[in-house]
Known about the structure:
This protein is of the alpha+beta class. The protein has 28 helices and twelve strands.
Amino acid sequence: MSWTAPRVALPLAGLLLIACGGGSSSSDDPAPTEGAVETTQVTTAQHVGSASCAECHAEVVESYARSAHALASRPVAHASLPSRDTGLSSNQWTTDPHSLALTDASGESRVVPITHALGGQRRQDYLGESDGQQQVLPWSWSATRETFVDPVTEERGEVVPPGSGLFWTEAGRNHDRACSRCHPIDAEDEAHGLGCETCHGPAGDHVAAAREGRAADAPLGVADDAWSGCAHCHAVGRELPRRESAHPWTEPFHDLIIANTLVSALGRDLAFDLSGRPILPHGYEVQALATSACAQRGGVTCLTCHDPHGGASGSSLREADPDASCRSCHAEIVAQGSAHTHHPMPDGPVPLASVEPHGPDPSRAPGCVDCHLPASLVFSPGDLVRDHAIANPEPSMGEPDACLTCHANQSASDLSHALDQWFPDRERKRRRLSEAFSTGATAVSDRSSNEDALRRLLDILLDDGRDSWTRANAVALMGAMTVADETVHRSLLDAAASEDPTLALAASTALGRTCTTTPLPNHLRERLTTLAQEHDDWRVRLSLASTLHACGDDVGLGLIESLQDDPVVPASGRAAVTLELGKAHLVRGTGARASFWLEETTRLNPDLVDAWLHLGLARQALGDLDGAQAAWEEVLVLRPGNVLATSFLGAIRARTAAAAAAAEGDAP
């Protein structure tokens, strides 16, 4: 589980969109008797649990039960807990083997029963109840180090104090808000929170039809492509409202978009290196793979290598040998052996990364994955996981890198020189992207007009052979530079017309920023209006309507209002519409209307950080400083350390202190 999105603030002008997500319920029912299948009465569109699926798919269900997915979330009765004598002091245990003694925010000791275990392949986290809420407890079991750890303290480098949003009783560690999307504890699957219906949808119709011999009459849902089912947990996507069921079938899989880019309102996102490659270990795998040549030119998807039903020996891989998928496409290169690798060739399958948590054993020969999907990303101290970008080593970029992972005692320049000698024609895509993105980021930081940076970024945007997320990174930087001419505006409009929502939304946001400093010519404004009315994706229409309004055209507000009653907008999308209405009225100076729509947004989705940020601004504009402060404090509950909320609160507190000092000075 990832607790924070590390960022470094750059002095970006203006307030950009930001985003986040969660939802669920729980059950501690016992597991069905092993070997027996209990037949349940089912009704239409009902969740029936994986045991019902086993009536016909026993082999698949059995394989799934051994998989890492099956460990995602389980009631404590179904979990295997580690021994008490490793890593925790005796006074943290109680006489109940499923309870911990913890100190709450008031300093009082409290006995907290463990209700659920989350994960377990590398680390097992625990849930316990606090004031009626399921909270992530401060101690986790590290399977690779065989000891208890406090992962939040390890990540932050300091103990989390009471009052912090990440203290174990606070909202930052609330299961519904922080974990439920990928670690649900719903009652539909008692033994495993993630079950068959997590990806295939409610199976009531299908099971009822199958029992009558007509399974084909009620087909189950599946992900609409080979990416999106995995993307719900293995990609950082847009914010989703909290929902009664954590199952993703409340809206289509393809509704997920990869929203996070290299640069946002909070500056450069340190989840990515300067080439745009994700370097956080979990939750970014889809983004990493999508940028690879294997995906772009070879059609590789998550399912090329992985079997979500368990795979070979529960490893999640289709084959026990991690190199098997590489050999199926690159037989010619594999046949070259050491002539290609310039290393000894392995005499058998290379180990899984989980078998070598500290990195590759230096005594063995490397395989394909060791150089191109290296175990170089730090899941936790002493626990490395694979980088899914499938790229050539580039030690000049620094860590994480395959060469540096194995040859830490050699310099990056020496390793780069060796690669140049072995592969004189090697493509250096990451280096070129890094140069373009770093030049753009520098221009943003310096608030300078850098023609060279703009042209480099434009070249990336216009390269149709690149993945949409890399192009979206270029677009986000172009928007942050807020400098544009007609060529740039036309290119951004072309990108906004894309069928890919990731690219289209990034382009729309960039247009909204650049047109405030460089107005759109009339013919381009007309095209923007048409796109805002006719784009196939309602989310892009909403964004373009907001952009049109930001560019000074009142038609934009009318288009946002029209989406309120548009049947194509799902219930889960209403908060997005009311948010844009609130922001539009804030720009217009109609603070009361802005406050109304933003309060409605927080009612529809109380976890939407952007709504609370703008609600604070609306209340401040109305002179309600207490209300503004409350809104920004809510942001820090949801996202501890948020730069904008911290800055706004600092300004309001300084203003209040100055007023108090002045009043005291005037007192007789």
